[in-house]
Amino acid sequence: MNALDAARWQFALTASIHFLFVALTLGLVFFVASTQTRYVRTGDPLYGRMARFWGSLYAINYAVGIATGLVMEFEIGLNWSGLSRLTGDVFGAPLAMETLVAFVLESTLLGMWLFGWERIDKKLHLALIWGVAATALLSAFWVMVSNAFLQHPVGYVLDGDGRARLTDFTALLTNSALWFALAHVVAVAALTGGMFVAGVSAWHLRRRPGDEFFGRSLRKGLHSALAGLFFTIGFGYAQFGPLGANQPTKLSGSGDDALRLREEWVAKHGPGDYLPDSGVVGGSLGFMIMVANLLFLILLAAQLLTFRDMLGTRRWARPMLWLLTALIPVPFLTAIAGWVVREEGRQPWAVYGLLKTADAVSPMSDRVLTASTIGFTVLVAGLALLDWWLLARRAARGPGDEFLPQPLPEREEVSV
Questions:
Q1: pTM to 2 decimal places
Q2: Which of 135, 221, 232, 279 has a beta carbon 3.0–4.6 Å from 106's, enabling a disulfide?
Q3: pLDDT at 416
């Protein structure tokens, strides 16, 4: 494996696994915030238990996910010095903002929320989790601002040293490659979080039919998943317009249009193959669309079965509970397929039309990059397995007294 392939595989595997954490974290935090809102408004203790239980799963995923994000930061600095040298002053600024938001503000608010149950005012405590949700969304926004620049570079000029300098910050924020993609990612997160909640709840309802806690969680999870999938499909199709204008080679296929584009790009940028692998990009896109449409029908059927609690109490509806549990991984797979379309479809460019991937990689030996690829892959895969083990263990245990202050044991008085 040469240095370029090793660097690309390394970052692709790390980014894909990290994105799985992001999707679940962003989806669960809004679920928890909305559930706690119901608790504060109604005073129903069941909603409080729901917020604490699903919040504990959110906290696990968030904590382990941060570690995978740190690995990505190391990889950008170590393996992609050409990218940092040419455009780091532009796309690095949004990433710095994301780091401040995610590692400082979001983590601080989350810690206050975790340890604030029944210790601070309910409304102030509710504001904390909505603050966590807002900062999580803001974190996703800054990442997508940076990524949109790689997809469609705007708001910069090349100085005398050939380095990109930011000249128009507003152009970054109004990038045509940003907003539909951001909305698509947020919708995917709502789908992922909702499917996770629905799948775990279905697992418990198979064992305890009629359980009110997981019955409500199942209905609320299905609402989130169905709404998230609806907007995922909508914002996914909405991106085709900007894609055609910003990246004409991404979905060019292999016909006459592809040949024409190849000739145009060779004339503009010199000899080379400027078309991505149409099989990988087209196959991932087709898989994503097919699965999304099928999943929408399944979720719609499951939603109808929640009428009069048929899904949680009727024996003939039990196969749907099995199916919902089995479908937990599906949103993660489709999310990776979507990321492949967005990132692989940009090849052979690290910054579309500006910097080739081959010129962005660090001048390191093949052996060193291969070794680091193996090491980072083992590390990130191990973190992912640890996360799923912790989540499965905690989810199977069911709700308890998470985060509630515990009374101190009584001391025996010792006479002197």
A1: 0.90
A2: 135
A3: 47
In a domain, 284, yes or no: yes
Residue 168 CA to its chain's centroid (Å): 28
Q: What is the mean pLDDT of the chain?
A: 87
- Number of folded domains that form the chain: 1
pLDDT of residue 311: 73
Q: Which two tokens stand for residue 110?
A: 């989350």
Q: How far apart are CA 302 and CA 320, in angstroms?
A: 7
Strand partners, 355: 351
- Is the predicted pLDDT of residue 90 greater than 90, yes or no? no
Cα diameter, the chain: 97
Crossing angle (nearest 10°) for helices 122-151 and 107-114 = 150
Q: Are 353 and 214 in contact (CB under 8 A)?
A: no
The per-residue pLDDT for range 6-48, each reduced to its tens digit, is: 888 888 888 888 888 889 999 999 999 999 999 999 999 999 9
With beta carbons less than 8 A apart as the criterion, state whether 67 and 386 touch: no
Share of the chain above pLDDT 70, in %: 95
Contact 327, 199 (CB under 8 A): yes
**Where does residue 184 fall: left (phi above 0), alpha (psi -120 to 50 degrees), or beta otherwise?**
alpha
Distance CA 299, CA 172 (A): 37
Query: Is 251 domain-assigned?
Result: yes
Q: Which residues span the domain enclosing 343?
A: 184-364
What contacts 213, CB < 8 A, 6 or more positions away? 46, 49, 50, 53, 398, 399
- 95 in a domain, yes or no? no
In a domain, 234, yes or no: yes
